[in-house]
Design a protein that fits this description.
With about 190 residues, the protein is mainly α. Helices cover about 65% and strands about 0% of the residues. It has helices spanning about 10-35, 50-75, 80-85, 95-115, 120-130, 130-145, 155-175.
């Protein structure tokens, strides 16, 4: 028995893994924003939201790796290692592909900083972690300029919903009074 693969198999795998990585990245970003802005209350009960945030980040990285592997495996457009690892190295739609490459490297930096969070100063970790916002923008740019599903109403609706939710969380956070640093209570006199 001879197994023949459908000629568009890698294209379908590329699309599916790319969309899954993008949606899980947006979900992780929104869960992280919900944690940071406390839009779900002062303290969500239990670590479930942090687990969702971390789990979706892991799914994002896994499907990003599968997306890159499928692109390299596809023979329709020939991508080499430099094309998928170096921004603007691709001959095919270099700016659109660069958006995906930049998003990938930002995701890697955010994930590595999260794994080393306890060893990094909080300010350094937070600065690197804010790269997730840039990754979401770059991945969305990549999806709409290199992807073939940019006109799909579900894809467009997902982008609008995620951007709207993020904007609402930022607005909510800005509307809250700033927390002042805790000062020690004055020593009793007398």
């Amino acid at each position: 028995m001879h197994l023949t693969l459908h000629p568009e198999l890698w294209w379908c795998v590329t699309r599916a893994t790319g969309i899954t990585a993008w949606v899980s990245a947006l979900g992780s970003l929104l869960a992280g924003l919900a944690l940071a802005t406390r839009t779900l209350g002062a303290r969500p009960k239990g670590p479930w939201l942090l687990d969702v945030h971390r789990g979706l980040a892991g799914v994002t990285l896994a499907f990003t790796a599968l997306h890159v592997a499928a692109i390299v495996a596809d023979s329709y457009v020939h991508f080499g290692a430099a094309d998928v690892l170096v921004p603007l190295a691709s001959d095919w739609e270099p700016v659109a592909v660069a958006g995906g490459v930049v998003a990938m490297w930002l995701l890697v930096a955010v994930q590595l900083s999260s794994l080393a969070m306890r060893r990094l100063p909080k300010r350094v970790w937070r600065t690197i972690h804010l790269g997730s916002h840039g990754a979401a923008v770059a991945a969305t740019f990549h999806a709409f300029t290199a992807g073939t599903d940019a006109g799909n109403p579900l894809v467009v609706g997902t982008a609008i919903a995620a951007a709207s939710a993020a904007a609402l969380m930022f607005t909510y956070r800005l509307a809250l009074p700033r927390r002042s640093a805790r000062r020690p209570s004055p020593a009793p006199t007398g």
